[in-house]
Amino acid sequence: MFSRCKRYTRRFHAAVAASNPPSPLNPTKRSKNAPPPASDTEVVRWNKAITAHMRHGRMAAAAAIFRRMPRRTTVSWNAMLSGYLSNGCFSLALRLFDAIPDPDLVSFNTMIHGHVVKRDLASARRLFDQMAVKDTVTWNTMISAYAQSGLVEEAREIFDRTPHKNAISWNGILAAYVQNGRLEVARLLFDSNSDWDTVSWNAMIAGYVQRRRLAEAQQLFDRMPERDIVSWNTLISGYAQNGDMSVATRLFDESPSRDVFTWTAMVSGYAQNGMLEDARRVFDAMPKRNSVSWNAMIAAYVQCQKMDQAKELFDVMPCRNVNSWNTLITGYAQAGMVEQARWIFDTMPQRDSVSWAAMIAGYSQGGSSEEALQLFIEMGRYGERINRSSFTSVLSTCADIAMLECGKQVHGRLVKAGYGMGCFVGNALLAMYCKCGSIYEAYEAFEDMKEKDVVSWNTMIAGYARHGYGKEALKVFNLMRMTDTQPDYVTMVIGFVVNILQALLHYTCSVGVLSACSHAGLVDKGINYFYTMHRDFGVTATAEHYTCMIDLLGRAGRLDDAQALMKDMPFEPDATMWGALLGASRIHRNTELGEKAATKIFEMEPDNAGMYVLLSNLYATSGKWGNVNKMRVMMRERGVKKVPGFSWIEANNKVHTFSVGDMLHPEKDKIYAFLEELDMKMKKEGYVSATEMVLHDVEEEEKEHMLKYHSEKIAVAFGLLNVPSGRPIRVIKNLRVCEDCHNAIKFISVIENRLIILRDSNRFHHFSGGSCSCGDYW
């Protein structure tokens, strides 16, 4: 479209210069031999031809006629003006408007509408204010423009000034209040006028339906002097979407007439409420279907992950559109069938931004990070406008693999795209910085968010907690309580109780030892949060809350209190709770309690390799090597395999992955030589290997050798060699960091004077100056 407009720009100037009618600004003289001026009948015929050509997109032909006209009227100019606007050539329309000798009311109204379509309300208002004479169309256009842009007060100001209000004026201001959620004001306005048409009644009902206020919608529906099919469809779809299919069905049966939208509302309602057979029954009974009907039924199968039935329906669909293809892509991706999703993506005749976003999300959610990033790059190369969903998915991918630099580049593109920092994209950006270990940049992103929802607060609270900044987590939570945002169930489970209680203990550990009596105030504060959350927020404690409390008490050394809490719970302890108790038993070397917890875990989750390893560590630290061997035999007999540990680091725009004793990396010789130097320096500073962590009864020297080449140490060494001085070294590990590596990295942070940020499977560790942000708790 833009290229067509550009081609006609020169022709436009030529047309204006070629034959403007005489005017004070452009005086011309007709030669003696010139033909007489065209008759009114001829001008009307040419004007109709211009309009017809413009209606069919033939701007060149319209411009040619306009250029050849010996005489033009204002109607001629208006025909060209509206034609350029309807064909998307706003710049040509604007130049033409400025050249009109005597613009009339239609000229001004047409140009104001053009500015409104371009969302340039300031220019529209300037033109509006310049008009000496306005008609009802002028006033109504401005009311509608402000209403659609959410500027309700401005819309009301124009409405109040309108000298002659008609039904469109009243409907416009009513719609402004309804569309922007100001239903109480809309209702007052509605009740102040008894002469509303059916459109206004429907708008008011729709406003109540959209906000699930069905009782008030029903009340208005019952009072309507005259209903049309839109009235019935609005209420039917409202009840259906709210899950009340019995009322929706009754209204459907009572409806005096039904169209395709009535039937489709029932299909969608049954589908959204998981009533797949009823949805298909209604679909099969439909006298006529459109693409929306077919897509609703396909979406119903997709929602229930019945992809075979969805594909069968798609294959026989006579009126596929891009939404049909997108629904199938989304369904396959959500079902983990990424290859099928990609096949659909590759074979669809036309894609839109939703198609790309769905495929990127499929790769991201399926763990195919490289493919997600590659497709995101291709999306930009194809010239497709990157939407919010695509940005969110790729930011999530960067977060999952901790590619901070890539995430920053996406952040830059996000800003250039002009999306700002709304909740949807802002939350993804916030999570990316938190998961990539850049908690300070996360807080900057949090502060930049103009609007924050409960997810924003939860993410920031959880981020601080996982990074070991308990005081900051509590501070953000308290700030949240001062706003209109109320903590929800997720806040209490993830963002508040689970993370805040852990954060309290992190802080407890950071100031000293794991002694309940030394820091009873902080632990008791956490317990107080647990017991008052129902009173303060109406949230009943769930298994996640109790697990956190068991962990809190156990880690603090209050093992008896932890066991007592497990006995008093309203439900039986699960494997996660016993796992928390086993972890606490290892810390405090309580073998008897650890064995009891492990026995319960093995009954519930016999394949949980982590618990076997945890109990083995407890036996090893207690010197019970016979029991360590028994655990190894038990794992082998039950077919339980320990998950191999990996660590990775991003350097020079590439992710480098290491395993224990890695011999595949091209720089392995350089890395190991550097590790040997570091080991000597650490021992001079007092470092002693935690050989009790080795689950093999071998000589101490061999144990030290086995500990030296753990994956996280190799990754840190690689980072020291490749990440420029002054920048943090960020390492990610798929398992929890072992005690020896944790201690060693503290020494390395002092010796090398570097900030080292390690993300393990449980939390973040910020090593600096010989200490860790976790306070040796993980």
UniProtKB/TrEMBL annotation:
InterPro entries, A to Z = DYW_dom, E_motif, PPR_At4g14850-like_plant, PPR_rpt, TPR-like_helical_dom_sf
> Which residue ranges does the record annotate as region Disordered?
16-41
User: Would the keyword Repeat be found if you checked this record's keyword annotation?
Assistant: yes
GO terms, biological process? RNA modification; system development
Residues in DYW domain copies: 686-778
Its transmembrane ranges are none
Q: Where are the PPR repeats?
A: 73-107, 135-169, 197-231, 259-293, 321-355, 453-487
| Gene Ontology terms for molecular function | RNA binding; zinc ion binding
The protein's UniProt keywords, in alphabetical order, are: Repeat
- For the keyword Repeat, the answer is yes
Question: Pfam families of this UniProt entry?
Answer: DYW_deaminase, E_motif, PPR, PPR_2
**Which NCBIfam families does this one have?**
PPR (TIGR00756)
PANTHER family, A to Z: PENTATRICOPEPTIDE REPEAT-CONTAINING PROTEIN (PTHR47926)
| Protein's UniProt name | DYW domain-containing protein
